[in-house]
Amino acid sequence: MAKIVVKKSPGSTDMTAMCDVAFLLLTFFVMTSTAKIPEALPVDTPASTVQTKLPETDLATLTVGKGKIFFDLKGREIRKKTLQLMGEKYGVAFSEDDKEKFALMDDFGVPIESLKQIIDMKAADRSKAGQPGIPSDSLDNQLKDWVRNARIANIEVNDKELQIAIKGDAKEEYPAIRKVMDILQDQKINSFSLVTGLRGKDF
């Protein structure tokens, strides 16, 4: 008796639902993500195997590179208080709007007299502004005052001691880093972190 051969039609998969899900996920991630703002002073940190993380709060970072020093501070209220103290010290008036904008900024590197111009810029323009760095010489040591006033502000706002981190470029000459360390040691800050990039342990 002859076998009956049933022709099988090739199956088809409806990909409409999969495409919908893919586009929904793509739309979600595009709309909720934020673009990384370029650093005002990008540095290539030296490599290290240490995996200790910096604290998320109560931290000031001094970035040293290309002969310049930039300053950054964690915490909006601390930033506003520090700016107020610096304004009082140098006789520069900052409005409440200036303080609010400054609280949202990243690191900066200009003399206090030019800070208002940087505050008024858009975030993307600050990295292109050619900031000269915070003065730190013996005649005009504004960096010392930024560190001191940030410590005062942190104690007043959070009732905690401010942690200090130095983020130096791997190609920066040692005297530039030593100068920053001397400024810290003049204020009895003998414990601070050095920011490095992670490398493999077998190097």
Identify the notable features of this structure and list them briefly.
four-stranded mixed β-sheet, alpha/beta, 203 residues, single chain, two-stranded parallel sheet, 40% helix, 6 strands
What does this molecule look like?
The chain has helices at residues 16-32, 76-90, 96-104, 115-120, 123-126, 142-158, 174-186; strands spanning 47-48, 59-65, 68-73, 163-168, 193-194, 197-198. With 203 residues, it is of the alpha/beta class.
In short:
By secondary structure, the chain is an alpha/beta fold.
Looking across the biggest beta sheet, what order are the strands in?
3-2-4-5
pLDDT < 50 runs, ≥5 residues:
none
Main beta-sheet strand count, sense and barrel state: 4 strands, mixed
Radius of gyration: 26 Å
Structural class: alpha/beta
Please write the string of helix (H) and strand (E) elements.
HEEEHHHHHEHEE
**DSSP strand count:** 6
As a percent range, the share of strand residues is 5-15%
Ends apart, CA distance between termini = 76 Å
Report the helical percentage: 25-40%
What is the tally of helical segments? 7
Shape: elongated
Kindly state the mean pLDDT as a whole number?
85
